[in-house]
């Protein structure tokens, strides 16, 4: 029990700040001040979020003093600041980020919407985004559309409701209308597209080397002596699928090989569809001697199915895929791929968005192509 050092009163005592780490009290009975050694602060109740007012009451100082101390104001004595920080820690004080954002008009948070977080490519992109954002003092909120346009729209709405400073987005397979993006773009929200982009919108875009990558993969297969190269293409409506399909056709034309519609099969990146494609090709009078998949995951699935059927890779059918991950290198034989550098894609996208946030109306959007690399492995080496 605390008592006045002058009159020994225990009832009419009030906190009156602190001096050199000791709590200062005012005895109203004798109007004298005294100090006692600081004692641990009683923690807040379980479901109570500690506020600046709680810290102020615990120390007997004004809330404005606590606020200035927490914001490292030079107006506050260093001893006072250290004591406020000590009590704030004991009370598990956490800043109200929303309130702070409303005061300064920014949350230091960026939103990200991706189609599928389980795909190694998008996992790599997220790693790059997170690294750049953290170094720049931004938090990252991630949403997954699961290849659904309606889910993507809800994701964007949720992120905007959370007052994100900007948005990074790669669209779902189903997304063909971009009104949900236009709405926020017209409000001046910084938005950057990556991978699956909307060219009709005036945003900065970080895009993959789709056409060239497909051309190089098919060119490599042709140089290995392949004459009938099937393509496991993606959805017809997906822009990146169209670009990779055009790269495939361009390589055939460049090397004088005829285009055969029977060797083209469009799928939605699902395993059963890749197997359906293989069944169709193997039923042809003249089956393919090579398969190019616009998504490396489908290429791996096709290799597994080919081995089940006793078809030798690459002697009977060579295989190559767009994109890369650890499984592509570990499977036997290892898969020839076009490596996309997803980490770099994420880093460039995050840096571009942060520049957009900082520059505001002075920001000039541009298309940035991330150059990929042909990686030749045993799945395609006929020669």
Automatic annotation (TrEMBL):
InterPro entries: HTH_LacI, LacI/GalR-like_sensor, Lambda_DNA-bd_dom_sf, Peripla_BP_I
Keyword annotations of the record: DNA-binding, Transcription, Transcription regulation
Species per Swiss-Prot/TrEMBL record: Flectobacillus rivi
Domain HTH lacI-type: 50-104
Entry protein name: Substrate-binding domain-containing protein
SMART domains: HTH_LACI
């Amino acid at each position: 029990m605390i008592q006045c050092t002058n009159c020994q009163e225990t009832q009419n005592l009030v906190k009156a700040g602190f001096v050199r780490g000791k709590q200062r009290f005012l005895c109203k009975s004798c109007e004298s001040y005294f100090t006692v050694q600081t004692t641990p602060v009683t923690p807040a109740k379980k479901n109570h979020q500690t506020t600046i007012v709680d810290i102020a009451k615990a120390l007997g100082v004004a809330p404005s003093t606590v606020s200035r101390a927490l914001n490292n104001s030079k107006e506050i004595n260093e001893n006072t600041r250290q004591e406020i920080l000590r009590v704030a820690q004991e009370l598990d004080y956490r800043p109200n980020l929303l309130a702070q954002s409303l005061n300064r008009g920014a949350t230091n948070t960026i939103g990200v919407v991706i189609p599928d977080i389980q795909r190694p490519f998008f996992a790599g992109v997220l790693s790059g985004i997170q690294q750049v954002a953290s170094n720049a003092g931004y938090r990252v909120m991630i949403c997954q559309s699961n290849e659904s346009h309606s889910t993507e729209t809800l994701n964007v709405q949720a992120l905007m409701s959370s007052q994100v400073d900007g948005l990074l987005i790669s669209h779902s397979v189903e997304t063909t209308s971009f009104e949900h993006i236009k709405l926020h773009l017209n409000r001046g929200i910084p938005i950057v597209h990556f991978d699956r982009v909307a060219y009709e919108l005036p945003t900065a875009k970080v895009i993959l080397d789709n056409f060239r990558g497909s051309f190089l993969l098919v060119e490599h297969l042709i140089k290995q002596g392949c004459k009938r190269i099937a393509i496991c293409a993606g959805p017809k409506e997906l822009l990146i699928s169209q670009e990779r399909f055009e790269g495939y056709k361009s390589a055939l034309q460049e090397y004088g090989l005829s285009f055969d519609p029977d060797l083209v099969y469009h799928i939605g990146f699902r395993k059963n569809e890749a197997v359906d494609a293989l069944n169709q090709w193997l039923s042809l009078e003249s089956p393919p001697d090579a398969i190019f998949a616009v998504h490396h995951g489908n290429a791996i699935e096709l290799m597994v199915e080919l081995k089940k059927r006793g078809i030798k890779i690459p002697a009977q059918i060579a295989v190559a895929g767009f994109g890369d991950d650890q499984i592509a290198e570990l499977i036997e034989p290892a898969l020839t791929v076009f490596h996309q550098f997803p980490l770099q894609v994420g880093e460039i996208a995050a840096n571009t968005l942060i520049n957009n946030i900082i520059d505001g109306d002075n920001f000039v959007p541009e298309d940035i192509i991330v150059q990929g690399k042909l990686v030749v492995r045993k799945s395609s080496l006929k020669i």
